[in-house]
Target: Twin transmembrane helix small protein
Amino acid sequence: MADPLFYLVVAAIISVVLVLIIGIAGYGKGGEFNAKYSNKMMRLRILLQFIAVLLILAYAYLKGQGGQ
Model:
């Protein structure tokens, strides 16, 4: 498991989860943070999910081709 792309995929997934948790916590708390950052957090999560999906597809494609 010394594949750098694997670690990049894991880092992307962790970043999506962290942004999701921050967004849910902000929504649950409400107030000024939610009003100011809820839309930005959602957009950031969508962007990070897109990047994570691309990395997962690249990893699966390269592993299917016999790459490291």
User: Anything to note?
Assistant: The CA atoms of residues 29 and 54 lie 32 Å apart. The helical segments are 4-29, 31-64. The first helix runs from residue 4 to 29.
